[in-house]
Fold:
Amino acid sequence: MKVIFLGTSSGAGKTTVTALYCRYLANKGVKVAPFKASNLSLNSFVTKDGCEIGMGQAFQAWVSGVEPSSDMNPVLLKPSGNKTLQLIVDGKAQKDISETNPMDRKAVMKNVCEAFDRLSERYDVVVCEGSGSPAELNLLDKDLANTGMMRERNVPAVLVGDIERGGVFAALYGTWLLVPEDVRPLLKGFIINRFRGDPSILGPAIERIEELTGMAFIGTIPYVDLKFPEEDSLSDTGGKLEGPTVMDAFIGNADSLLETAEKYGLDLKKIEDISSS
Structure:
């Protein structure tokens, strides 16, 4: 089984929501692994066998109760200045890429799919995280982690929108509308993240989004003062992070948020149904 969490923007909460769902499944005894096809970040983690992956996937592996591996983030792009990125594939540095020396998308997508397939053979569920937004019209032909994975492996998707930024319903509907028509039917559900107050007031707007898109409402996640791994450009936020190690602290925060979100009405059983469809 498989599912991918997409964001209406960078920083919408994809990394955290992916981790919450992994933790939910792991607590039920399901053998689960996280996966992010492509990560753009300097915030990396070195696995036990010396491979470099995004910190977010290490966090997601920890809450899943499994060891982080390069298959969980087969492509890592590290900014290195002068409009250049270091390309890391399967945990190992390959070359620098730029506008004049672009990445071979077809070859890299092959590595991505092979990594995903290896995880699918070893785990009951692979929980994927998208990158940025799936509706970046200028990047659709280069996409790996969003519509790229949806197409290549027919992965059903859940959209995550950040209401803290404002305009969440426009962002949800606009993203659904701009996603290419061939993969739009794979958009199965949506989550509203970082809400402050009584979520019942959102009812009419949620119903309208369901009517417009056919996506099912999964639930609302409240705003909490807890820290989780973030993309580099968004890594200056505060939040509680306490524990004997960073790993313990992140796991503790995930447990706390999962408990709070489920009490708030987040219905993760709906995602189980989506991932098995």
Observations:
- The longest strand covers residues 187-195.
- The longest helix spans residues 246-264.
- The helical segments are 14-27, 55-64, 105-122, 147-153, 168-178, 203-213, 246-264, 269-275.
